[in-house]
Amino acid sequence: MDFFLKCSTSFYNQPNLSFNVFGYSWGVQDVFAANPFPGSANGSMWTLKHEIAMYLLLPLCAYFLFFQRRYFALFFGMVFLGLAWLNVYDAQNFSPQGRLWWVLKEYNSFIKLASFFWLGAIGYIFRDKIIHSWRLVLLAVLVLIFANSLHLVKYAMFICLPYLLLAVAVGCQASWIRKYGDFSYGIYIYAFPVQQTLIALFKPELTVGTFCLSAFAVTVACAAISWHVLEKPALNLKNRF
Hints:
The protein has about 240 residues and is mostly helical. The protein folds into 3 domains: about 1-40, no CATH class; about 50-175, no CATH class; about 175-240, no CATH class. About 70% of the residues lie in helices and about 0% in strands. The protein is built from 11 helices and no strands. The protein has helices at about 1-10, 15, 50-65, 70-95, 100-105, 110-125, 135-150, 155-170, 175-180, 185-200, 210-235. Helix 3 (about 50-65) runs antiparallel to helix 4 (about 70-95) and helix 10 packs antiparallel against helix 11 (about 210-235). The two termini are about 40 Å apart. The relative contact order is 0.08.
């Protein structure tokens, strides 16, 4: 109750209701004050404005898909990939005062997240061309290991991680999980506040094991409720248009 009362009198709600477009706010004064992350209500909120930006890119993906402009999508993907690599190079070789381009400094998170988003979209658009092979999965893992030894893993991950994720998702189709709903977004959103709450309430009694298990169980329960009460009904509204 104390959390919600302080939320209502703080600047926490205003930025998050605007999807953090005009600034971040994941902290509430004096809430979780004794936690390792004092005052932090939900650190996951920082991605909201980037998610909104990705949603705005979806019509462009649809255009490339439905009007057979697949190679334009590939071009945009290469642009984002190049910007992401420049971002990594810039961060590794220049001080914050000597950044190569101001856009890399101001929008570095968006550039990195947009690269993964667009490469995932390319994976869907070119799904008839991409080869799914466990040998390629192994090769991608070996490339990441080798790149890490050369301190190049931050470059290689933009290529290897999207393929690894899509390959594992396609190769390990857990239909028994999907029939209960898609809890992935709820797990992401609710994990942080659940962990903060458990630490605040039970910190002396918690071990690492009990903390992980209890946080996982409570987060999945919250995500399941969110899916069936909020997310699924909201998605069903699209059938009316």
